[in-house]
Amino acid sequence: xxxxxxxxxLEFHQPDVLALQEIxxxxxxxxxxxxxxxxxxxxxxxxxxxxGVALLTKRPLVRVTTGFRDAAWPEDRRIIAAExxxxxxxxxxxxxxxxxxxxxxxxxxxxxxxxxxxxRPAVERGIQFVWLGDINIAxxxxxxxxxxxxxxxxxxxxxxxxxxxxxxxxxxxxxxxQFNEGPGHYTYWDFFIKNALDRKLGWRIDxxxxxxxxASRCTACEIDYxxxxxxxxxxxxxxxxxFED
Length: 245
What we know:
Radius of gyration: 17 Å
CATH class: Alpha Beta
CATH architecture: 4-Layer Sandwich
Strand order of the largest sheet: 4-5-6-7-9-8
Structural class: alpha+beta
Mean pLDDT: 97
Helix content: 25-40%
Distance between the termini: 30 Å
Number of strands: 11
Number of helices: 7
Largest sheet: 6 strands, mixed
């Protein structure tokens, strides 16, 4: 986690909720004090060196849950959810998949299927929620530079599209695409590609989805490119959604 970049971004934007993924630290070493000094409550589900998710919130949380809550599934620190003023925020770090055909690829597909099952009871009960995070899927040709080249690879594969479509079919709206059409809108740029940001050689793999009622209250959803231009940035950048109260 690029801590100072996050702190500066929070100071400027003052969001009610910030979701972090791949924090790569255990709960007890997460820098709570710095965020709490800015008025944020920290809910952390961390892991040393790998994965890890966190929610920073200005408003009180009723409860926090982590993982699939299923003993048959490994606790790999990829899900944290919290109820806030009658709605849920579900923050995920979806597995990357590594290589098509590998064990990690099989796990990614199974994880997405399990996540659909995880969301279904909330949908059936009419719970309003936002699902967001590093989804690790660019779901349309507009969501990755040179789709023809990348189609069939990790992050832009029909098997991933199928599973994401089943999740979206539960009644979720891609908030960024509610306001923005066409190619060139990306959230991730590989460090190994020179000047990838300015050349628009990226992927839109960080998403914000919402149930119908919340989607109708969303007034904007945009990508903040400036943090990616800073010294020693993350290879991802922030995606922001604004809602009417």
